[in-house]
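Okay, is this right?
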Amino acid sequence: MRLSHAYTLLIVGLALLATSSQQAHAQVNCADNGTFAFLTQSLPDGTTNTEFVVRFITLNADGPVTFSADVLPAGVTLDASSGVLTGRPTETFNQTINVTADDTLQMVVLAVPWKVNASGGGGNAGAEFGNASLVQARVGTAYADTLTVLNNVGAITFGAKNLPSGIGLDGETGVLSGNPSVPGRHFVDLSARDAGDGNNVSTLLPLLVLPSGSDFQFTTQFLNNGEVGTTFCDTYLTANGAGNVRFGASGLPPGITLDSATGLASGTPTIAGTFEVLLTADDGQDTITTNLAMVIAPSSTSTFYWNVFSLPAALLGFAYDRQPPIEVATVNGVTVTYAATGLPPGIGYHPSTGELTGIPTEVGEFDVSFTASDAGTSETLVLIFTFVVLPPEGGDIGSVPVHFWFKKIALKLGEDGKESWRGQLFYNEDRRSGMIFDPATEDFRLSIGSRSIELPAGVLLGSSKRWGYKSPKGESPAIGLLTDASKQEMKWFSKNDTFLETVPGIHRMIVRMGGSSYRMNVRFDAKGAAKGPVGFMRPAFVLVKGALKVNADGEDTAKLSMLLADSSLLFDAGDVLRVRILEGATVLIDRDFTALGQSVSSVDSAGVLTFKIKSLADPGLVDLVKKFSFDSKKGKLSLALDALSLGAMTAGEAHLTVELTLNDRVYRTGVTFFELKPGNYTTKMPK
């Protein structure tokens, strides 16, 4: 894309930025709802033969909004249901456009000047996605579609965020494939990098996944927007449910709550910004989801808002900059300064321009908190955004496994102030001296949906090996946390608490320990329970216990106990089986044992494909596979190797990368081993 990033990334698809427009929306009719109005007040200049994307945003609608304009230049269209103005202008233009928004009860008109300048050279207008939609999917049925890019000048690397669980993306070919396991309307954030000119393009397209046995789906596709201090109302709707539908939501702005029985979101917003919202609906037979966003203005008289809601995925080791720059910026501010916390290592954020630059050094999802403060009006906006860094080959961030595993979670709901939450998990992180999480100097955060437990540095008691926290007696809610780094295990509870989340439903869980961040959408049943792997909405890979014995070259051994969840994994006999263990760039083990793999598969009662893999006897002489087994339903994976040569390992502490390849999926996790006795390494820490 060639124009200012603050506009080119302004909802290239039709849903991540929330507006009041949707295909089927009940009348809200709140008696004290705010005034229906445009938040958008101006447009950036366009250029002929150059992609232009911007969106008209409204607030406080009482029904479905439709948009129209009296005049537009050739090559540009205004989508009536979303307010997205897009296209490649083919002629210069300098007029005032009268844009009308109609919410079925009232109409408002915005007169906005718009200028399209001549490009001055013509030629290639830059790469763009050729896909206008994605093929519909159904749980339990194999899925296939292909992304295309037009006008590129070099090889394309594809990336994706928010793909449905069970569907993966090949970053080199653009092929989408897999076995979808979570029904719902998923708004997928797609990006493509053109190696020829370093150009990044992005789009956002809905992918509808229907349940295995029905057409139950959300008809709500856009959210209403609101204002701090003004009563808010919106109703979320579904179609084709089997029974009474109950709703849930994670990430609603503070001050807004959801009635689980009616789908009515109401309240008075207290914080301005843009919020990613995950909606769920359960009809007693299936739980469906949809991911949308909502804008909250600072007041009824303010037009200050974030002007970017989508970012192209970064690629590990590649510069994240270009001309025009990539920005997370605002419009209608006077004197704005920017700040961000939680950015990926290697990425910086300019305090006066909002420009993002740098070379990312770590793959993963990073929950970044952006802040914009306007000194001219004393207004502040927040934006909690998931910044994605993909491997160099691109692909789907949902296929990059998180390195924690919920052993069990219990969310008991009922009366506000008397609800509770407790859980237990395993995790992998760098536990070497000087690298391990230090509770004396680093912050800790644990959250479910909108409820967060924040424990700043110095509050947690103990050492980096074993630390915890318990709230003072009589304090409400009561909170307890205990982490044993030697066992890579964490336990927590909260009592006398209040949660906005409902069950059954899917809620976002986040654990942040200093610079390490883990996040996953987790499925809770009607009793408020969740556990892996059935409750996980993305891959998880954890090495729970391990032992390495270093005797002599060709005589070393390894025993590893792991947990793996990935509903998109498809495996049959003859598919690739390979294990590698590395310390930094040094390869300690590289063993392909594809010929030894045997698999038995079946489909469970929910229509999900499950399978068991085991290895045959290994006739080799070195790097012998003594045992390999994996049960996808339980997530348990065991691996034992013999006749190894591990002498290159660092003495004392060795942080190793364990890499497992199953079919076309590669799973990696980093685990620290400790030499408790000469030549004997284990995942347990020394006392």
Summary: Residues 129-210 form a domain with the Immunoglobulin-like fold (CATH 2.60.40.10).
